[in-house]
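BUG: 3D viewer hangs when loading the predicted structure for this chain

Environment: internal workstation, default settings.
Expected: structure renders.
Actual: progress bar stalls at 90%.

Input used:
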Amino acid sequence: MMKLVNDIKEANCITHGGTMHADEVFATAFLEMYLNDIKVYRTMEINPDEFPKDVLIYDIGRGIFDHHQIDALKRENGITYSSFGLLWKAFGLDYLQRREIAQPEDVFEAIEKDFVIAIDADDNGVFPKIETDGTYKIKTLPNIIKLFNPSYQSEDDSNEQFIKAVAFAKIILQEEIKSIIGKTNAKYKVIEHYNKTENNILLLDEYMPYEETLLTIDELKRIEFVIFPSNRGGYNVKTVPKSFEDKTFRKNFPEEWAGLTNEKLEEVTGVFGARFCHNTRFLLSCNSLEAAYQLIDKALSSDINKNIDL
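Structure tokens produced before the viewer hung:
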């Protein structure tokens, strides 16, 4: 549980007051998860000599969990650690190990790459290039955290808003960790299934997050289609993109299959049990595993796939 205190002598954690940002908000959320009970003092004072010596100070004071000093710690890719990244670097693995998470090192690194580094980069002025046609605005997670700051002429109390922001950030961080744990567990199952594969078709015994594994492990980049049981019965067959950047498919379903269902799809494909092909041709469903393999064979022998190089 997090509690804001007005007396610095009651605090075991200190961060800056005023305008809140994603880094110290997520840092606070993580500390609440890691230490369970924290008493946070927010201040604009930046003289560390006046801070108590037995408290954790972050995003202020030029200490080991601050990043406003000239010699702030940087990653190998040049991204400076913010308070959130510094705390995750120091305590994230221990947090996961205490929870007895399987493959804690993998989960720790994945959360750093998938989540933490983006918060740090934004707070240090490194922003991604977001492609848009200008008809709508994209809000990043740091943008959303900024919404918790009292707006112009608002009567909202900044500390009460900070409490709201931390509660929100804690939910996001907890869900991120759960998601990464699931993906990490799935990665090892995907590799296990891949090791049983003799062709370029990956057969899974259940749906699991597989795409990231197929795109990041070089050996698995030969997979062209993935088959897994459908929650509607039967099987789904999905295409695989060439890479994270290139979303075109390694192999395609024929254009004439697009949008067809049941009898019409069976007639065009010549495969009994063909059930549905998505308009964009990334997904196909069928009634049996036999039909799934037959449909893949038909797709691979079609003209659309003859000149595609992986």
